[in-house]
Please model this.
Amino acid sequence: MTEMPYKIWFNGKLVDWKDANVHVLTHTLHYGLGVFEGIRAYECQEGKTAIFRLSEHVKRMFTSAHIANIKIPFTKEEITEAILNTIKENNLISCYIRPLAFIGDGVMGVHPKDNPINVIIAVWPWGAYLGEDGVNNGIRTKVSSFTRMHVNASMTKAKICGNYVNSIYAKMEVTSLGYDEAILLDADGYVAEGSGENIFIVRYGRLITPPLTSTLEGITRNTVIEIAEDLGIKISYQRFTRDEFYIADEAFLTGTAAEVTPVREIDDRAIGTGKPGKITKTIQKIYFDTVQGKNKKYKKWLTYLT
Model:
């Protein structure tokens, strides 16, 4: 990605992709304390571009920064405007958007003290995170040997850079064995989430998702919940075990990158018929129609570029 022909917003200025550099003694590089977001912009009808749930993502970034005790030197409005301008400057119709606030160089030690806070916004084209086949036909997952962090081990409600080392370990472990995605259990042994996604299962026509005890409050998760409620589908927020996952009728993962991706298999056991189920496909279709501007009911979630 070092040769990408795009510009990056860096502390208030648009610079060439190759020039968006930091010092090797950047504090976040060494210790992992930084916060970020993942946002998507989609090509909608008539070739217009719309960002999905932009305000919610920007708000969550600032919430993460508050939890991490990082003071972002820009307002929510300035970051929002910068995201819009960066997409326009790069002439992208659809793209992935990565805002990141990180601690710069200065003091070297665990406590960053008065090191400066830097903010970047990068945008680039990105297709289906877990593959088009995965979106259409479902993915193969495996429970990782790595446990999702306990709430007193890290700040699980913040999208903190260093938290994702746990996800990287899990993802590398299962993909090395031929699976598409990792499923992580919480410290008590219950299903928590994927390496970067929230989890839903379906049993007896009811949607079940783990409570947000040790997981990030996903914006796509929230979207799916509202869609399901509007469809009259009953939803339970409850812990469930890996063997209850095995006997689910349907399952799917949600996230900005993963969107709504069906799970067809876990630990070499087929979920339901081994194909995306009716509820999964219904919610998935509404989701994609929504982000592409085809579903007027949820137009409130779209911010169009002008």
